[in-house]
Structures are given as structure tokens and as C-alpha cells.
Amino acid sequence: MSFQYVFDNATTMSINRKKVVASTTARDGTVRAVARGNGAKVFTLRLPDGPRYSDNKSEIEAIEALDKYQTETIQIKYSKLPYYYGNVNPGTNESYEVICIEFPEWTIFGYDQVQWSGPFVFVEVV
Predict the structure, then answer these.
(1) Fewest beta carbons within 10 Å, which of 6, 29, 33, 67?
(2) How many C-beta neighbours within 10 Å does residue 20 have?
(3) Phi/psi of residue 66, each to 5°?
(4) What helix, strand, coil percent values describe the chain, rounded to 5?
């Protein structure tokens, strides 16, 4: 449970569901567009700054062990984000196979607190 830790403890999460689109404009003003690729979701999550490093050390090590080249199945849990699901039946979770493409640096500051340099970015593996 390593990437799942990020999804369960994130203070912010955004999901980009937009497809990659290529477009061109002709001299007469005609615009042509075509969707490229598979439209994989991109998840951007930020962990909070300030939790005790000693309490989270094993989770940080597990996340680092997966690094940016291994995939893991995660769930967006209804109990954590009911507003994300809207009118879906309670208890229904969504699962995704993801890979981390941006991994922030962490720093120990103050008295045993951990701080992150930026967000984690995950891409759905399709």
C-alpha cells in the first residue's frame, strides 16, 4: 500500500480527463481537430506538510520503492471523497492502474516533520 497512501492522505486532488487533441487551422480559417492517444486520466495529488516523519517513514519508503517505473492499482474511495461520486451508490470505489510520473522531494523540518516540494502526478495505465 504505497501509492494508495498518497491517494488516501492527499489534501488536494485533481483529475484531468481531457483527451490529447491535435488541431490545425487552414488559411481560410477552417479548424480541424483530432483526438490522439487513449485519453488516460492524469491524477495530481498533494500530501500535507507537517505530519511527523517518524510516523510516516515506512509509507514514504514504500512510495520511494515503487519510484517512477512501477505500476500499482489504487482506489478512489467513496468514504474519503463522497462528493466526487455524486449520486453513485455508497461504498462504490473506482480502481485504476497508475504509474507515478512526477515524484516530489521530501524534507524533514522543524521537529520531526515532513514537507513535500510539490505534487505527485500519476497517469492511468490503459
Answers:
(1) 29
(2) 11
(3) -75, -30
(4) 20, 40, 40
Residue type at 85 in one-letter notation? Y
- The 3-state DSSP class for residue 82 equals helix
How far does CA 109 lie from the centroid of its chain?
24
Q: Kindly report, residue by residue over 40-51, the tens digit of the pLDDT.
A: 899 999 999 999
Which of 54, 63, 93, 43 is CA-nearest to residue 3? 63
19: its cell numbers: 483527451
Report whether 17 contacts 43 (CB < 8 A). no
Parallel, antiparallel, or unpaired: how do β-strands 120-124 and 42-46 relate?
antiparallel
Dist CA 119 CA 13 (whole Å): 9
pTM: 0.83
